[in-house]
Design a protein that fits this description.
- The protein is α+β, with helices and mostly antiparallel strands.
- 49% of the residues lie in helices and 11% in strands.
- The strands form 4 sheets. It has a 4-stranded antiparallel β-sheet, with helices on one face. A 3-stranded antiparallel β-sheet has the order 5-6-9.
- Strand 7 and strand 8 form a beta hairpin.
- The protein is elongated, with a radius of gyration of 33 Å.
- The model has no long low-confidence stretch (mean pLDDT 85).
Length: 384
């Protein structure tokens, strides 16, 4: 029995008789074909009256196999990643998060270690659905995890599951119908102007400078610690270029930004005067105003600021609102902006928030455009 092989992968056609190949065109026997199907199993078919019909069938099978390869690859991908445990999948996912700054990576790892892995670490990826996600949120509530941490942990879980959903692991989005944790704006305790004046005078000169930068320019703790006189790019503009990273105790990129990126913020005249006064009184080191007290070659340490804040609260000599943290000085900046009609889009940009949603969640209650005020304005227009 002779066979004729076509191009690699297409298969062969032949006649199962005693006639020579040169006589096939006149032989009354049907042609047969042999090929490997999509699963790799050898397959035979018979009943083809002419050579052209046998070749056409082999061509169709070959094209069908080529067209099915992407779906086959997808099936293999689903099988591979779907069987992974959550912790294993996340470790691979983390390798692709190259845009995260050092502080953001540290924060991510803390959320994984203390909140996500203990509950979800051993779970197979293909077992996630909205009930599993909802159970995770209820577990955090039962553990009395703070609402900001709940929101952050859920955001990380959402990013991971959406990545898996794009791979096709889930037939349906496992986040659909899940009510995410809600950050409680009441937790953003903000001092009054009179209380702020007392707070800024509760520590040493460095503490006062940090409080002024947080409350007057909206800087984060670490950004204020990295204040540099060379970053005054205009009389009323300060350029935020870096921060002191708590985990490394070194200067690093801003939160949510890559190295070299910056944001410009308003510089009130009184804050500029504080910067210039401090520089004149204490000097600078490569333009930096704040340095480690015992070694000016190193950045200003977090504990130097934190210790003074704790001391001020413990003394009860300063009028500090109940529940306020040092970050409340930054909240004052947002409150001051929004209560004076500055658009929330500008405030979000100046504060360096990753998205407008974050600003809106935290400070919505501070915006002057409340429902009550809107009702009054609309009523006035209707009565005109």
């Amino acid at each position: 029995m002779a066979t004729r092989t076509l191009v690699r992968g297409m298969g062969t056609f032949f006649k199962d008789c005693e006639h020579l190949e040169s006589r096939w065109s006149k032989c009354p026997h049907d042609y047969k074909i042999r090929y490997r199907n999509a699963a790799g199993k050898q397959t035979k078919e018979a009943g083809f009256a002419t050579q052209d019909k046998a070749i056409t069938r082999l061509t169709d099978v070959y094209n069908e196999k080529k067209a099915s390869r992407p779906s086959q690859s997808k099936a293999e991908r689903i099988q591979k990643y779907g069987a992974m445990r959550f912790e294993e999948y996340v470790e691979e996912w983390k390798a692709g998060q190259r845009h995260l700054a050092v502080a953001s990576v540290r924060h991510l790892e803390s959320l994984l270690e203390h909140h996500l892995y203990p509950v979800l670490g051993s779970r197979r990826m293909n077992s996630f659905d909205h009930k599993v996600v909802d159970h995770f949120i209820r577990t955090m509530e039962r553990m009395q995890t703070g609402l900001p941490t709940q929101a952050n942990a859920f955001d990380k879980l959402r990013a991971i599951l959406l990545d898996a959903h794009r791979l096709g692991i889930f037939p349906d989005n496992p986040l659909l119908g899940v009510k995410p944790p809600q950050y409680d704006p009441a937790r953003a305790v903000i001092p009054s102007l009179e209380q702020l004046r007392g707070i800024r005078a509760a520590g040493d000169d460095a503490f006062m400078l940090i409080v002024d930068l947080m409350s007057g320019c909206g800087l984060r703790n670490g950004e204020a610690s990295a204040v540099n006189i060379n970053n005054i790019v205009a009389d009323d503009v300060y350029r935020v270029t870096e921060q002191v990273v708590v985990s490394t105790r070194r200067y690093g990129p801003l939160k949510h930004r890559k190295a070299g990126e910056y944001r410009d913020v308003p510089l009130p005249a009184r804050i500029r005067e504080t910067i210039e006064w401090y520089a004149e009184k204490h000097g600078t080191y490569d333009g930096y105003l704040l340095r480690q007290p015992t070694d000016p070659r190193k950045p200003y340490p977090y504990w130097a600021m934190d210790n003074q804040w704790k001391k001020a609260k413990a003394s009860e000599e300063v009028d500090i609102p109940e529940g306020m943290v040092l970050y409340g000085n930054r909240h004052f900046f947002a409150s001051n902006c929004l209560s004076n009609g500055i658009p929330i889009t500008d405030v979000a940009e100046w504060m360096g928030h990753k998205s407008l949603d974050i600003t809106f969640k935290i400070y919505r209650h501070l915006m002057p455009g409340s429902i009550g005020k809107a009702a009054q304005v609309l009523d006035m227009a209707l009565a005109a």
